[in-house]
Amino acid sequence: MNEEYKNKWISQLKKGTLPFIVLSVLRRNTYYGYDLINEIKKLTDIVIAEGTLYPLLVRLKNENLVSHSWVEQESGIPRKYYQITEEGKNTLNAMKDYWTYINNTIQSI
Amino acid sequence: MNEEYKNKWISQLKKGTLPFIVLSVLRRNTYYGYDLINEIKKLTDIVIAEGTLYPLLVRLKNENLVSHSWVEQESGIPRKYYQITEEGKNTLNAMKDYWTYINNTIQSI
DNA sequence: AAAAACACATTGTTATACTATGTAATTTGT
DNA sequence: ACAAATTACATAGTATAACAATGTGTTTTT
Questions:
Q1: Which residues 16-45 of A interface with strand D at a CB distance below 7 A?
Q2: Integer Cα distance of A68 and A81 in angstroms
Q3: In this entry, which stretches build a coiled coil (chains A, B) (predicted)?
Q4: What is the pTM assigned to this prediction?
Q5: What CATH number did the domain enclosing B43 receive?
Q6: How many separate domains does chain A show?
Q7: Residue A73: pLDDT band by 50, 70, 90 thresholds?
């Protein structure tokens, strides 16, 4: 078993799965970045580095798949809450379909 | 629906799925590069560019997941046939496990 | 004879995960 | 009361990989 290759592969696999997972989680609720990391860790055991998530959220925002709004806190720093857009929901559905297709394909080989 | 983003996403998803698919196909049989492209197209409808596959096969070779041997043809250019190694089979099994895990996770969100 | 297909390969471009680092407020531990 | 850890945002640099474009030479089809 080539453990090192497997780890590198998992990192590459994340390039496809992370946007998918983030959008899926944001369809359930709104979250701010730092919280998303913890929520995804809790839900999936997948650890996302901050240096991965923040740029990813910026990209999703630029693509109009999510929007954000700053929310003041009673104490502490304001939080940037992200919500999925209609376009985000539709795109997520298409991604879901493709995922199902690729999963079936892989299982059949 | 953001079609452009979806296509970009599929391209990123391939970074995880292609090595997995190539190893899976090579577990069934030996193939040479050019033939692999057609075989995978036939099996999965996924189109792999030559500029993607050849470097991928080089990487898998460098990681000892596959080996290759030149086979002379009665007519035409010799073909470089690839076969999966024991290490390749074991790594593929580990990849399969991780894939199952990530698929279950995504379905559950 | 020309065009298409076969079969290998590399170069340049673009996208993205991850490490390291930075800033600043707040909370916890002693 | 002070130090350390946590919360919360973000960016810069590095490594990896898909893909288009291009290249070489042979063989088959039209």
A1: 32-35
A2: 5
A3: none
A4: 0.92
A5: 1.10.10.10
A6: 1
A7: confident
